[in-house]
Specification:
This protein is of the alpha+beta class. Helix content is about 25%, strand content about 30%.
């Protein structure tokens, strides 16, 4: 083998090794940015600033809309008195289908209070803003696709 062939073989081997190292180093960064999302939920229409707004994120119908033990994530936040609104951000979510339920827990007992006929006494809402009905919102009626790096949804409270 000639001296030139040995040098060319060594250069090719070094390029292959460098390329492998580069691909391996970049692969985790690419996977983290492509497959995760940040979801911001803006809640409007609070009738007062009592209590907190609970925002619950579900990845399937199990437990939707009010069983937080079956939820993927849950956060409670105070109401901004100047705008009568609240905002929650969920980070590092997989890109998938979700539904969000919201409760204005005015008395801070952690549950939806209802009157003697079973109708809600506190504000509530869900993603895709379903209209007021005689039953709780369904996952099917509230589900949406989270398929961007950042996405914002707006939910108006119903009383």
């Amino acid at each position: 083998m000639s001296k030139f062939s040995l040098q060319a073989s060594r250069v090719v081997a070094e390029l292959v090794i460098f390329g492998s190292v580069l691909v391996t180093a970049l692969a985790p960064a690419r996977a983290q940015t492509q497959d995760t999302s940040t979801l911001t939920v803006r809640i409007t229409g609070a009738r007062n600033t009592k209590g907190q707004i609970g925002v619950t994120l579900f990845q399937d119908a199990q437990g939707f809309p009010d069983d937080t033990s079956k939820a993927l994530r849950q956060q409670s936040v105070d109401i901004d008195p100047s705008t009568m609104s609240a905002q929650v951000t969920f980070k590092d979510l997989p890109q998938d289908t979700f539904a969000v339920s919201v409760l204005h827990d005015e008395n801070g007992n952690g549950k939806m209070d209802k009157n003697f006929m079973g109708m809600p006494k506190e504000g509530y809402g869900a993603s895709k803003n379903p209209k007021k009905q005689r039953r709780a919102p369904t996952f099917e009626g509230a589900k949406f696709s989270l398929n961007a790096a950042q996405q914002t949804i707006d939910i108006k409270l119903i009383y």
